[in-house]
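Hi everyone,

Forwarding the result from last night's run.
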Amino acid sequence: MISLSVGMMLSTSLLHALPEAFEMHVQPNRLFLTLLIGLLAFFLLEKFSILRHSHHHEGDGHHHEKGFDKHEAGSAGWMILVGHGFHSITDGILISAAFLANPYLGLITSLAILAHEIPQQVGDFIVMLNAGFTRKRAFFYSLSNTATAMTGALIGYHTLGRAQELIPYVLTLASAGFIYIALSDLIPQMQRRSTIRETIPQIALVALGIAVIFTITHGLHHSH
């Protein structure tokens, strides 16, 4: 899923969201500045643990010390939940912006987010279980975070529906998020598997992610 989401996130941002933003008659230097600000902002958010991706857990083949998950979900555990909630709201706003810009873009953006959310939710769930959360409690927090995406979508729809001129900037910021997550979080995890036997499936899945996005958009545009 991580390899697949890399292909989907990079192709959605670089082949669809950014070109869509640049076609909205905004000065390119403003959008490039927005992209730069977005990349730096995601770096700072992750630096201060506001944005947090928990694909790592004990027994995943990485050499974490015993009690790693308990520590992760102790003082930092609530930060993971808050960070994921914040991230879910921004995902919802992004999906709204994408649908308002272009229904095709909205669909592929939703798919790219879903591909990334599945391994992230599983990682968060396992960290919470290993930290002593009951299954019901861990499931409730995961479900709550998913619900915040709907809140973000409603906020985005009502706000951006009245301020159409903001859509290209939101799409550019969203692209910055996709690019940052793919390059700083997901690809480094893929790099840990260094043998040819492990690398070939990764490359194939990245290519599949790109092909899925390309095929969907090409098919939808053709049918339209």
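The first helix runs from residue 2 to 22.

Cheers,
N.
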